[in-house]
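Hi F.,

I've been meaning to write this up properly since the lab meeting, where we talked about keeping a consistent format for the predictions we share between groups. The idea is simple: the sequence comes first, exactly as it goes in, then the structure tokens exactly as they come out, then a line or two of notes. No screenshots and no reformatting. I'm using this chain as the first example so we have something concrete to point to.
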Amino acid sequence: MARPREFDERAVLDAAIQCFWSRGYEATSVRDLAGSMGITGGSLYNAFGDKQALYRKALEGYVDVTIADRIRRCEALAPRAGIALFFAEILVRSLDDPDHKGCMVVNAALEASPGDPALREALAAVLVRIETFFRRRVEAGQRDGSISAAQSAADLGRHYLGVLMGVRVLARVRPERDLLEGVVKPALALLDDA
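Output, unedited:
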């Protein structure tokens, strides 16, 4: 009979998220993870598998707590307001990040190895999810007349994904309010009639 786990899986997964997020995959050792999670290396392997499997699980946890939650909240608003709130929250998160960790998804995408197609597919799925959120909000706004139809919803969805990625990368090195707001403001102006 297997022994029951003697730790709170959510708490140790949160610790793994923080460890990977601040150091990245390559720079994080199993010893670093076990230490930050407060468990032994053996417990880590028994509970989560290898480092790569734990990284994917940590990334999923990050997406659920940050991106998926933000999308759910913003989808509940009027289309234009939902897009604006999404970017407003990203600006706050980017400017209030004293460690300049950035976005774990963006960090993972920049660090992803070509030899790990499963991770690349998981990251691509997250990016598609974000792009789809933007496209659907634009489509809804174009239907109700609150968003200009001058640009296609598909193009704006892709554009906003690119703006989001750019803001999150810029914020790691230049977390300056004027810079980041200056990237977002003209992007949001595309929602208005010319």
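Notes:
The radius of gyration is 19 Å.
The mean pLDDT is 91.

If this format works for you, I'll send the rest the same way.

G.
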